Fold this sequence. Notes:
By secondary structure, the protein is an all-beta fold. The protein has one domain (30-162): Jelly Rolls (Sandwich), CATH 2.60.120. Helix content is 0%, strand content 49%. It contains no helices and twelve strands. The strands form two sheets. Strands 1-12-3-8-9-10 form a six-stranded antiparallel β-sheet, with no helix packed on it. It has a six-stranded antiparallel β-sheet with strand order 2-11-4-5-6-7, with no helix packed on it. Strand 9 and strand 10 (126-132) form a beta hairpin.
Amino acid sequence: MVCFCAAGNLLAGSGTALHFNQSTELASIPHNLALNAYPLTVTAWFRSTANNGSVQVIAAKYMDKTYDGWALAVQSGQLHGFYYRAGSLNNKAIDAFSGTFAADGVWHHAALVVNTNGGELFLDGAMVASNGWIGVSGGLTNTAPVTFGNLAVPLYSLSGDVD
């Protein structure tokens, strides 16, 4: 499991979420080999009201169209999660949508779990999608940073909050 926080930097209470207004804003953690962990669980609390069909990144370790990385996003009002590896559409654990509307202005909990069996996508504690591996299972090889609210090259801006 990967935790994107340091115990000395934790803030508690209201008002500590990252807020994004669908511009080129993002928060990032520089690449570190440990962030290419496998198996992997990524979780985030998010809130969004945007339902315009665009992809809006909640959290990602991915450079667009490289097919080596993971992301949690809001797309067409639904939670979208994926994990690809080795630069190929033919090597993936999951690429799925929640099937449930989540751009309702309410806080939601998202989780992406990837292991030797494949991938699972959770929304508010319920598994909403799962896949077995297609292609060769394994960890990432990318050097992308972990980003929140957008990709490292801002293309998919979130209009909402991440905690």
